[in-house]
Amino acid sequence: MAERLTRQGREVVLIDREKPCRGSTAASTAMLLWEIDRSLNELALLIGFDRAARCYQASLRAVNELQRLILERALPGQLRPRQSLYLARDDDARSLRDELALRVRAGLPGVFLDHRALLDNFGFARAAAILSPGAAEADPVQLASGLLSLSLSQGARLVQGDAVAFDAGKDSVVVGLDGGHEIEARRVVLATGYAMPRIIQPTIQRVASSWAIATVPQPQNLWKDEVLIWEASEDYHYARTTPDGRIIFGGEDDDELIEPATRDRAIPEKSRRLAAELSALWPRAILETDYQWSGTFDTTDDGLPLIGAVPGFPNIFAAYGYGGNGITFSYLASELIAALIAGRSSPLLDDFAIERVSPARA
Questions:
Q1: Alpha helix stretches (DSSP H) within the chain
Q2: Nearest of 112, 116, 95 to residue 104 by alpha carbon
Q3: Which pLDDT score, from 0 to 100, does residue 72 have?
Q4: What CATH number belongs to 1-79+138-188+305-355?
Q5: Other CB atoms closer than 10 Å to residue 82's CB: what's the count?
Q6: What is the Cα 213 distance to its own chain's centre?
Q7: What are the φ/ψ torsions at residue 234 (nearest 5 degrees)?
Q8: Residue 249 to residue 247: CA distance in whole angstroms
Q9: SS3 category, 146
Q10: What is the DSSP string of 78-138?
C-alpha cells in the first residue's frame, strides 16, 4: 500500500506497532494464487456469474502485476513463477469439469486432467485436477522487506507506535498513538492484518487458525515442475516447494483454536496430522520436518477481501486481504484504494465492501 501511494506521489507515513515483517507476514506460506478460496462455481451461486467472474479476473491481473512489479524493481523475495494444481478432494471429478467450463466462460486459463493424466504427468493419485498458469511463490519476509525499503526510498516515513484512536473529519483524520502523540493526515488506510480496529465492524469475517510444516531439504523427491498444490474443499490442504528443496505443507484450519497460546499448543498434534496428509498425497516425501508453525488466518463467508471506505468514518479506508489470497488481495487493495484516493472508483469496491452482508446468510 505504501509503495503504491508513494509511487503515486503521495506523502506517506507508515505506523507499525511491531517490528516490520513480523506477525502474520512471517507465518505466511506465500503461495501467490489468483484462484479464490471459493470456487468460481460457488462464488457465482452466491453473487452471480458476472460479479464472480469480475473478481476472478481482477485476482488474475493482480498476481500478474505483482510479479511485474517485483521483477521491474528487482525486489528480493525469491519469486518463482508457478502453475497451480487444483486437486479433487475425493472421487468428484465432475465438479472440477464444471468448474473449468465456468472458468473458460469467464476467460480464465486452465486445463482439465483426469485421473490417468494427473497420475502420468504429476504422480498424484486423485480423481482429477485443474492445472492453471499464472501463479507464483515467494519468501514473504524478504518480499515485504523489499517493498518497505522501496517505499522508504520513494519518500515514505516509518513510525513505530500503536494507533489507538481515529478522529475522522470532512477534510482530515487525526490518528492518536499509544504514546500520546497524534498524526494528522488527509486520509488513513488501515492495513493492520488480523488486528482489526474497533471502528470496523464487518459481519462477513471470521477468525480462524492455520498450521504448516516445512520438511528437511529433499530436492530429489519433489513433484514435476514444483507446481503449487491445493484441494477442492472448504478446509483444504496446500503445498509448495522451496528453492532449497523443502516441501511446505499446510492446512488443518480451525475456527475454535484461535487464542494464540491455545493455537500454538496444538502445533505438535496438527503437525502430525499434516505429515500424515502429506504422506497420503505424496508417499515418496521424507516426512522429517525442520519447522512447524501456526498463524492467524481470517476468512470471509464469500472468500473475498474487505477493501474500500470504512462506513461512518470519512477519509478512512481499509485494506484487508483475508483468505488464502492475502498477498494477491493486498496488491489489489493497493491499486483500488490508490484509485479511490485519486477520485476514481471501481465496481470491485461493491464486491469487496466492508459492510456487505454475507451472501450465504442472505
A1: 2-7, 24-27, 40-47, 49-72, 94-105, 115-122, 140-153, 260-265, 267-281, 326-341, 348-351
A2: 112
A3: 97
A4: 3.50.50.60
A5: 22
A6: 18
A7: -65, -50
A8: 6
A9: helix
A10: --EEEEEEEEESSS--HHHHHHHHHHHHTT---EEEEHHHHHHHH---SSEEEEEEEEEE-
C-alpha cell at 291: 519447522
CB burial readout 43-73, b (16+ within 10 A) else e: bbebbeeebbbbbbebbbbbbeebbebbeee
Task: Measure Cα distances from 171 to 5, 187, 191, 198 in Å.
Answer: 19, 8, 21, 22
pLDDT average per 10 residues of sequence, the chain (362 residues):
96 94 87 95 96 98 97 96 94 94 98 98 97 97 96 97 95 96 97 89 89 98 97 90 97 91 95 97 98 90 95 96 89 97 96 88 58
87 contacts: CB under 8 Å, gap ≥ 6? 118, 124, 126, 128, 129, 229, 230, 231, 232
- What radius of gyration do the chain's Cα atoms show? 20
pLDDT at 217: 98
